[in-house]
Amino acid sequence: MKLVDTRSKTYFLQAIKSAIKEKLPAGEAANLIKFADEFFLSAFVDEFEGRQVSDVLGLLVSVWKFIQDFDGKTAKVKVFDPNLEEHGWQSSHTVLMVMQNNMPFIVDSIRMTLADRETKTHAIQYASFNIERDSKGKLQSLKQQKHKADELSTGEGIVFIELDRHADASAKASLTEAITSVLNDVALTVQDYPLMQSKIAQIRSDVQELVAKKTAKLPYESEELTEGLEFLEWLENDHFAFLGYVDIEKVIEKKEPNMKAVKGSELGLLKSHPEQIESIDFHRYAKKQKSGARSNSFITFATAPTRSTVHRPAYPE
Asked: What is the pTM of this model?
């Protein structure tokens, strides 16, 4: 029973590569060695202390098989319990493997979901790859990336997590569904991010145009407008994480100005979670509540009714 050498990443990789050469034909070994260099690029090797070389090799082969097919459209998720008969390695934990186009928020959002489910994470690896695929999404070649461990990269992202044992099929299916859902939220948020930024830019431009005309009487002091426009510009310049957006229109109903979302204007999280959009119906408010809910400020802040599934577990502003 040979254990991995975790004194350094160099020693660790030497042991894994030696095992690859011993177990696999030369052609397959060369591809897996190239993959190992990239997969363990940012790994904390002390997480593998006390583990057998054969189990780490089996882990690597499982991930290598997992990435062979990927359509690049939606996240690929697999939850399983490694065993010698089926996977060639074993672990006392359940494994979660995820493949998605590389983008922000992936790892944080997965960890949030696991924390919400009170599922403990025992080990986690994340790596990104530039992979050439054919029209059916089958891996053709693994391109060597020219980046350091702490540099951003594009391509496809792989997350490998060992977590608390999920003994039955229903628990695994539930976890798969939850992770798939949150990764769909991540994809929508990242996809719509530039659009959300552009919405802020458009609002700022529209207000600046009205101010410049001087014919439109705006119900705000000049100082408040200036400060508000500067704040909007600050938001545009990557000082704010845009997670969702929706246009709100004022509708007069029974002589009351109610605020309602414009259907079809949703972006980001609000596309997949329209239930988070709450209209403001002043008919339901008492007189004192109405005065508190109405605001004459150029910019009004409010907190979402539910926690975000993306980025961090907070109630978005």
From this structure: 0.84
* CA–CA gap between residue 57 and residue 88 (Å, rounded): 9
- Judged against a pLDDT cut of 50, whether residue 150 lies above it is answered with no
- Average pLDDT value for the chain: 87
Nearest alpha carbon to residue 55 among 27, 93, 11, 97? 93
Bridge partners (DSSP) of residue 143 are 130
CA atoms of 92 and 52, how far apart (whole Å): 13
278, 279, 280, 286: CA torsion to nearest 10 = -80
CB 105 within 8 A of CB 311: yes
DSSP string, 27-83: HHHHHHHHHHHHHTTT--GGGGTT-BHHHHHHHHHHHHHHTTB--SSS-EEEEE---
What percent of the chain has pLDDT above 70?
89
**Structure confidence at residue 300 (pLDDT):** 82
Tokens of 148: 């350091």
DSSP states along 213-259: H--S--SS-HHHHHHHHHHHHHIIIIIS---EE--EEEEEETTEEEE
**Three-class DSSP category at 123:** strand
**Token code pair at residue 56:** 């780490």
Go through the chain and tell me how many residues it has: 317
- Distance between start and end Cα atoms, the chain: 54
Neighbours of 148 (CB within 10 A): 9
